[in-house]
Each structure stands twice: as structure tokens, then as C-alpha cells.
Amino acid sequence: MNITLPRTVVKKLAKVPNKSEFIALALVERFSKLERDDFRRRLIDDYKEAARLKLDEKDATADW
Question: pTM above the 0.70 mark?
């Protein structure tokens, strides 16, 4: 696999002894963060939807 990195990153990476492992760990951490962020976003969306449904339910029963 070939990738292109900004010069600033390449300069910092030059000082790292095991570049492949470092990059792999950085990617694993980044993917984990993205998954957590996505989970939180979906959880918030679900709570909002549940609250909206509850309000709709209250409005529907208020007519009785």
C-alpha cells in the first residue's frame, strides 16, 4: 500500500522506530473514536426520537 502524507507528519514519523506499528495503532485508535462518536450520535438520535414519540403519544391521548 502506498500513501501520501504531509511533510510535517513525515518529519515527525521519521523519529519513530517502528513506523508500521505506530501507524497501525494510530489508525486503530482513530477508527475506535469514529465508532464511539457514531454510537453516541445514534444514541442521541434514538433518545430524541423516543422523546418525540412520547410527546406525540401524550398529544394523541389528550384528546380523550
Answer: no
